Amino acid sequence: MCSFSLFAQDYFPSNSGVIANNSNYTAFTNATIHVSPTEVLNNATLLIKDGKVVSVGKSVNIPKNTTKIDLSGKPFTHLLLICTPPLV
User: Which UniProt keywords apply (predicted)?
Assistant: First the structure.
């Protein structure tokens, strides 16, 4: 008489990806930024931290350890949505 014992894996690893909190600044340099419908800044810098715009302009002070992205000759669209409640 023969007997076999089979063991199955009962551990299922989680693959939730890499979770990293980035608290550094991100600077988009050499960008064409439309500040308003009538004002356009060429070769300007957009500085972002924690998903919020910190500074916009041609002479922005860029802190140390900032991730710099050069947008020379590249299209860039920054979309700002302003949600307001409906007027009754």
Answer: Hydrolase
Strand 67-70 to strand 40-49: parallel, antiparallel, or no bridges (unpaired)?
A: unpaired
Look at residue 66 and tell me if it is in a domain.
yes
Domain extent at residue 45: 25-70
Half-sphere exposure of 52 (CA within 13 A, CB side): 3
Q: Is the pLDDT of residue 4 over 70?
A: no
**Does residue 15 belong to any structural domain of this protein?**
no
The pTM assigned to this predicted structure is 0.62
Which CATH number is 44's domain given?
Answer: 2.30.40.10
